[in-house]
């Protein structure tokens, strides 16, 4: 069996060149805004270093919608922990925070 080149398997460019790496952080953040917040927080930073770096910046966290995730989790302690983490990650840039079943500690942290 013949080995395939990376371009043939993944549809990317030869030698692992990636057009993703040419996108600015602002463009990536705009694309990431279309992905549910819980998925961004759980998985996207593991894709590659440039995505992790963009997700570490506050501009990805100005609009945080966790309502669906909160309804699935339905544990105030976990929801409060995640909200506190995302508020810290936003470094004060959150413009809209949508959550369900937020406890007192999560509310106090989000409000400050």
Task: Reconstruct the topology from this structure.
Layout: H1 6-10, H2 25-32, H3 37-42, H4 49-55, E1 63-65, H5 67-73, H6 76-90, E2 96-98, H7 104-111
Parallel strand pairs: 1-2
Protein model, in words:
The protein has 112 residues and is mainly alpha-helical. 50% of the residues lie in helices and 5% in strands. It has 7 helices and 2 strands; from the N terminus they run ααααβααβα. It has helices spanning 6-10, 25-32, 37-42, 49-55, 67-73, 76-90, 104-111; strands spanning 63-65, 96-98. The chain has a two-stranded parallel ribbon with strand order 1-2. Helix 2 (25-32) packs across helix 4 and helix 6 runs parallel beside helix 7 (104-111). The longest helix has 15 residues, at 76-90. The chain starts with 5 loop residues before the first helix and ends with a helix. Mean pLDDT is 78; it is low at 4-14.
- Structural class by secondary-structure content: mainly alpha
What is the CA-based Rg, rounded? 17 Å
Helix content: 40-55%
The strand line-up of the biggest sheet is 1-2
Elements, N to C (H/E):
HHHHEHHEH
Counted beta strands: 2
Protein name: F-box domain-containing protein
Domain F-box: 17-64
Organism: Zingiber officinale
InterPro entries: F-box-like_dom_sf, F-box_dom
Summarize this structure briefly:
The chain has seven helices and two strands. It has 112 residues and is mainly alpha-helical.
């Amino acid at each position: 069996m013949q080995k395939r080149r990376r371009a043939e398997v993944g549809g990317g460019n030869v030698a692992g060149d990636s057009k993703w790496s040419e996108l600015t952080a602002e463009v990536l953040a705009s694309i990431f805004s279309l992905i549910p917040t819980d998925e961004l927080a759980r998985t996207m930073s593991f894709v590659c270093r440039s995505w992790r770096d963009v997700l570490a910046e506050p501009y990805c966290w100005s609009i945080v919608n966790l309502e669906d995730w909160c309804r699935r989790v339905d544990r105030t302690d976990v929801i409060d922990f995640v909200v506190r983490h995302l508020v810290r990650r936003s470094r004060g840039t959150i413009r809209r925070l949508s959550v369900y079943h937020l406890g007192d500690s999560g509310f106090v942290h989000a409000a400050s």
